Amino acid sequence: MRAYLGVDVGSVSTNLVVMNENDEILENLYLRTQGQPVKVVQNGLKLLGEKLGKDVTIAGVGVTGSARSLTAVLVGADAIKNEITAHAVAVSKMVPGAQTILEIGGQDSKIIIMRDGIVIDFAMNTVCAAGTGSFLDHQADRLRIPIEKFGELALKAKNPVRIAGRCAVFAESDMIHKQQLGHATEDIIAGLCEALVRNYLNNVGKGKEILGPVVFQGGVAANVGIKAAFEKALNKELVIPKYFNVMGAVGCCLLAKEATRNTPTKFKGWQAAGYDFRPTSFECKGCPNLCEVIQIHENEVLVARWGDRCGKWSNISAKVG
Asked: Which bin fits 65, alpha (ψ -120 to 50), beta or left (φ > 0)?
């Protein structure tokens, strides 16, 4: 069976999806990156190789995410795309007619505005943690509540309190103050969900025309409290795709399929899970930019460089590779 592999490596999670020729998802993995992208990608390849074995032939690979350049070298990618493109392609396939995509991940959040299947506008927030999944994880841990139960408790709130959600530090201080005043935990959690949504709409969604259907995806889409807060604020029902937490990787599969329509794949095979990849870096002193150049060695052979603005080093490694 011919299939396509999509890999989305972010700062919090690494997602891998395998899709067949009929655009049916055969396998999907949601793994924690934990600051070790090389190790987690190789672990994902190993798991998929064991599950799919010789029954599946990978005909194309697409990668995205903040570590897409690194991932492309690890797996042998045919399509290297930014997250906006990957998510938009996935939604166009999974939720035809969608006009707005709300995506909240562990370390960032984004909004994508689509019309007639084409991206016409987008915005990202990578600055403040108050609008991300990591902040919710931290608060759940502080309250000693499993993050899986966070949303359910929010729905039980009778009088949600208003939390100052424009800054992660202020939000946490305000939550502690509300606890000291004796407010119920459910009301505080519901207030936090509403604060996160308010922060998102006032920053990431500022000035954007949010029309339905509205798709909500990313790891935070599993939180029913956040979903309810968005629906209350927008007065619209949100659509959560079946594979909401790996949509970037789903888009990569579709992009890989298109990229390899008339060309053979560069995929290194499941055995890449056992290769010795070693990243190093150095500062180029050839000009005042002082670029940090990243190098990747595969089994002690230099296979890639990037990070230089002028191409002095990356062009050499491209010829070598």
From this structure: left
* Average pLDDT for the chain: 86
Q: Which domain holds residue 123?
A: 96-240
Least confident of 4-8, 172-176, 211-215: 172-176
| Per-residue tokens: 299 | 């089994």
pLDDT given for residue 129 in this prediction: 57
Angle between helices 83-94 and 247-259 (to 10 degrees): 90
CA distance 159 to 165: 17
Q: What pLDDT was estimated at residue 199?
A: 82
What is the pTM (predicted TM-score) of this model? 0.84
Residue 210 sits in a domain whose CATH number is 3.30.420.40
Burial string for 273-299 (b: 16+ CB within 10 Å, else e) reads beeebeeeeeebeeeeeebebbbbebe
58 and 69 part of one domain? yes
